[in-house]
Here is the input.
Amino acid sequence: MEIYQLANGDSVYRRHKSIVIPFAAVRKVLSTSVMNGGYREDLTAVFNHDCSPETGTASGLQASGYEAYMCSVAENMGLNPPHVSGMATAALMDNVAIQADEYKNLNVAALVTGGIEVNGGRVGDPAAYFKPVERSSLQKSGTINIILSVNADMPPGTLARALVTCTEAKTAALQELMAGSKYSSGLATGSGTDQTMIIANPSSPLYLESAGKHSKLGELIGNVVKKAVKEALFKQTGLSPEKQHSLLRRLQRFGVNEEMIWEKHRNFCRNPIDRARFRELLSCLDRQDGLVVFTSLYVHLLDQLNWQLLSPEEVYWGGTALLAVAARQFGVEAPSITGTDMEAYLEAWASMLAGIVEQTVKKESGG
Here is the structure.
């Protein structure tokens, strides 16, 4: 089924679990794919494929290895594997986001699928993968896959710069959503398995030699990729500004969760409530405007401590002040920060949240 027509004349099709673009003419392609990746001018199509096993079936990716699996996917769509480049993901193709923008006779379109909830990471996070033989067992569940089509010609170096701009735009989208890494306390810059394809049209009369942020091409790439990444993440997992308006989601990357706050309530509250009631109250507090605001400010102090933008003394002063203001706002005693390490800051904030739950219970009971 055709789902979109690109400005260069190529049609975009959804074929079962794949999005495929057969080329109507010669294209320049730069991709990060392990299947005919790098810079190519001999490809006849590119595709993005949902490799998650269907109900009741085994994973073909695990059974045959990644490259062999992708070749079989290409063959099943009637494509010639040596002249096709593909990407794999566990995101549904029904959740593809397509965004396009133009300036005069320049058109840029981004087709994105993605998820960041499972293996979102920050560049430089601790990693375990090293041996090439492990390629077939790579996880695909959190992949952000981007196909970027430009209806202009450009030299290979500019294609490479377009890839850099595209990656910056993806990371900017994640920063604007405050998406956290699953491997550290940092903000995610992507997932561990992201892939990107940039397509240019060598027969176009429009020839561009700049794809950086000072160029119109760079501006369009930034705009369409940011919009498409955000839309794809929302379609796949519901990630959005509304979903992120949550104190628990702001604290998640630091390891502060319901369990930690529950333990503090259970151990230190004079009359602890049952777990179900606790979860209900915490859920109500989770999206309370003031608490989300104070929590956001508090964790950003911790970010700046990690980035060495603020000294430990400055963060201790700011954290103590925020605890005092937030505690006073919600009628509880401000816990003390017992040290200058990350754990001490997080323990104090979790203790305050447990105190707010206890205070809410007292108000409800008339105490």
Remarks:
- The chain has two domains: 2-239, 247-365.
- The CA atoms of residues 30 and 159 lie 7 Å apart.
